[in-house]
Amino acid sequence: MATTLKPSSLHPRDLGRTATVGLRTRKLRTALSALGIMIGIAAMVGVLGLSESSKSELLSQLDRLGTNLLTVEAGTGIGLGSGELPEEAAGMIAQIGPVETTTVVSAVAEAKVYRTDYIPEGQTGGISVQAVDLSLLETLAGSVEDGQWLDAATGAYPTTVLGSVAADRLGITEVTGTEQVWLGEQWFMVIGVLEEFELAPDLDRAAMVGLEAAGEYLDDDGVPTRILVRVDPDQVDAVMAVMAATANPENPEEVEVARPTDALEAKEAADDALTALFLGLGAVALLVGGVGIANVMVISVLERRSEIGLRRALGATKRHVASQFLGEALLLSGIGGVGGVLLGVAVTTGYAAIKGWNALIPPVAIVGGIGAALVIGAIAGLYPAIRAARMSPTDALRTAG
Amino acid sequence: MKAEPVLSLHNVTKEYPTTPVVRALQGVSFEVNSGELVAVVGPSGSGKSTLLHIMGTLDRPTSGEVTVAGHRISQLSDKDMSSLRAHHIGFVFQQFHLLSGYTALDNVADGLLYTGLPLGERRHLAEEALRRVGMGHRLDHVATKLSGGERQRVATARALIGNPSIVLADEPTGNLDTKSSDAIVELIEELNESGTTIVVITHNREIAEAFPRSVGLRDGRIEYDTSWSEVA
Predict the structure, then answer these.
(1) Among A1, A30, A319, the residue to mutate for chain B (most B Cβ within 10 A)
(2) Averaged pLDDT for residues B183-207
(3) What is the residue-averaged pLDDT of chain A?
């Protein structure tokens, strides 16, 4: 009569069903414990998504502005001479092979700008007057908000184009062709207002006049204080290396050469540090969520002693019982993981839309988010599952209920 | 030649390592043959529950040998004992132990959960089992919506579903009123008549006396067995 014993086995689909018993019968508890994981994953996916989106925004910004712009300035400060570059600096720089264009900016230090001639002298509003080459707007990839930029004709007459901050401070909101400002003791016609410069924020606070007009009406000597140089994008470093010596062969140490786009990249690097901090916070939230799941699972095992006893009586092996509870913990954390990824994607998309960026979510954030949730779930579920499996069936059945 | 018994206990003892040591069973021997209906009767503390757990392979004896459906427990691993329960033993409990969120049909289908049979087939067999116990009209009722008597019928159907070699019922009428209790006893007798081997554990002498054979248990020893007189 002793036949061979067919082993206990659980159909894979039934493993799924048994793992959801607890979740289906305790919906609120399921939702709350999944929420903990969800918040952690959402934070991590959101942070990664936002940082990726802002990086891509920076790249497209750099692409638009070009990273081949160099500024050459006379150093200012103690022992650094006059604050002006040699008169012939622009010409010499133009001789460097890979240099494409040069644009001269010459600060007219004596001239101040006022809304009217009645304004007290001291109230300059911090607005400077800059005599500029007509190529400035193109070189800086700037754009006109209202009116027009200087041309060969207007650049030779007492007309000015205001930077965005300067226009604001002077109270000029639109260009009708009749606004005048009191600039260097005479009236200058405002013919345009610019949008903010991304590469030269200081020019936002300037009233710009043509070099020719500056010489004619403001007695400016046209000596450059700054030269903007566009160079062959592949030769930027090489040009930078020789720039100071070319601009001022006598005192190259008095020349400051910079790449304005470096500032944008530095800002992004600072954001990276912040990203790491938020990722850390997300990881802490995830850990707390994991502890929550472990807690819920331990309670669940205690509450369901009689169910465990019944399952053992029905022929479940220890492994079947352990996999049921482990499966439950994995499902809990999996629900939290998927929810968290969805929430993180929603937050990223929403924030990017507000900022006008392209929302970019790195696939590693999605896969990693769900993966991290499952790993946390497995760790959190392991102890309760082993505990359930080790419970003696007779003890489990003795519990009333 | 006498057929090999479905269940046999030979000189079984069970001690719990508490202080002082509790000797729940002290040398219990008896056999249950295929098709029998046996009541194990005794007052509380007589060792009934321990005996049920050992007969049901939920626990191992301290000494002695238990053989179920031809398999000697002492030679089986823990996993093998689970397999034995999955394929050869059906349980009916005093507290029913139905899963509250499940329908009657799915509770009964769970009786074969650990045999690896797919759900569709188990449901089909569950429906048959429920009709056998007179619950064909309550297939889709959730367990919590059933009366006590109905729940015990569902639990009985769950024990029967795989045609086990033996059904062990632990105080099956313990939580029921007299009317439901009588109906369950009647059901057990019917099932036995159609060939199922059943052992009922009870403290109720009245029920025990209604059955063809009863084994009296007291202080961990067999006090009497009505089959002895037949042999004598």
Answers:
(1) A1
(2) 93
(3) 86
